[in-house]
Amino acid sequence: MKNKANVVIIGGGVVGCSIAYNLAKKGVKDVVLLEKSYLSSGATGRCGAGVRQQWGTKQNCLLASESMHIFEHFEDVLQIKRDIELKQKGYLLLAYSNKELEQFKKNIEVQHSLNIPSVLLTPKEAKEIVPDLNIEKLVGAAYCAKDGHANPFQVTLGYAEAAQRLGVEINKFTEVKDIITKNDTVLGVQTNKGFIECKKLVVAAGGWTQNIVKMAGIDLPIYSERHEILVTESVKNILDPMLMSFSYNIYCQQEPNGSFIMGYGPDNEPSTYNMESSWEFLETMSKKATWLLPPLKNIRIIRQWAGLYNISPDRQPIVSKINQVEGLYVACGFSGHGFMLAPAVGILMADILTGDKLTYDVILDLERFNRGEIIEEPSVV
Questions:
Q1: How far is CA 229 from the centre of its chain?
Q2: What is the count of structural domains for the chain?
Q3: Contact by Cβ (8 Å): 199, 327
Q4: What's the number of CA atoms in the CB half-sphere (13 Å) around residue 351?
């Protein structure tokens, strides 16, 4: 392990690896990535794997659309051979009130301004796409056929491989114990394997970002919340798109092998680092899923797991320098959609670190909360 670097990145998930690759692509030398476990061991490896462009704010739509383009051309962009298992079978977003439907209409206007091919559907049209869908109480739906899902592990490993090819050093099972500063300036990090001096430090550690930056005396406006997921046995195909309802806080998709992956956002989940599975989730998820898709009533559950959403006040990422500590940067607060935004976020953070003009016209800096420039993302489960 090097004892001196230009940039150190903490976090071996998809965001950290994307940042590392994009820095190296810009020609930045001596980039070191630290991961306390194995790559994708945190939120990346526990996510639902969906990639969608249907968001309610222009900047999330922009980042998602740009990321989708990279997902679609992943091997060509990174110049590697790695199948990320991208399947674009669409996202079908379900509206159960007129208020929700009106929000979908507003969202689609934003999406169309960025050439995202989303459409508004009637309940009957939604059922034509998913014949087994229960359309009781359904008011309408939004659909984008270009949305879908990909393999988070393969995407992360792809970025890591491409980054290493360009000279990035990746150190797994290397835990940061302390951030060393002097006169409010980053000097380096102390790890379980020794000290690394660095000029710039990026913390992209998902739910643990808050704990890490506290080592430098920083308190971020983010918190972590447990979200659970289950996977079922394989059955015949009855569902092509990802189904999602914001009012019922549920998402459900069928994998190419026939199994279903599904989860929901709890209403009153406390801020926590608890990633244990619960019986309550199984009971509630089963009721929601079988109401939504009645043929699922006899399906068997194979396993379940939990991960952390790292949530910001406006449900949008914080991709920013930290003004209070020179040389400290964060990429956090993704609120459950870090995987699908990671390709574009890596480009954005690389721009910030090098001082280049931002590739994307977005406001994701930490100081936006102090300025009151908050546009809350409405489309989050």
A1: 15
A2: 2
A3: yes
A4: 16
- The letter for the amino acid at 277 is S
Q: Could you read off the pLDDT of 26-71 as tens digits, one per residue?
A: 999 999 999 999 999 999 999 999 999 999 999 999 999 999 999 9
pTM over 0.85, yes/no: yes
Q: Which residue has the tokens 């996510």?
A: 47
Question: Do 202 and 168 share a structural domain?
Answer: yes
Within its chain, how far is the Cα of 218 from the centroid?
A: 23
Q: Are residues 142 and 13 in the same domain?
A: no
Cα(161)–Cα(155) distance, integer angstroms: 10
Tokens (6 digits) for 323: 């003004």
Cα–Cα distance for residue pair 64/109, rounded to 1 Å: 16
253 bridge partner residues? 261
Helix (H) / strand (E) containing 301: strand 301-311
Q: What domain range includes position 239?
A: 88-146+225-309
125-154 burial code (b ≥16 CB/10 A, e <16): ebbebbeebeeeebbbbbbbbbbbbbbbbb
DSSP labels, 201-256: EEE--GGGHHHHHGGGT---S-EEEEEEEEEE--------SEEEETTTTEEEEE-T
pLDDT tens per residue, range 319-329: 999 999 999 99
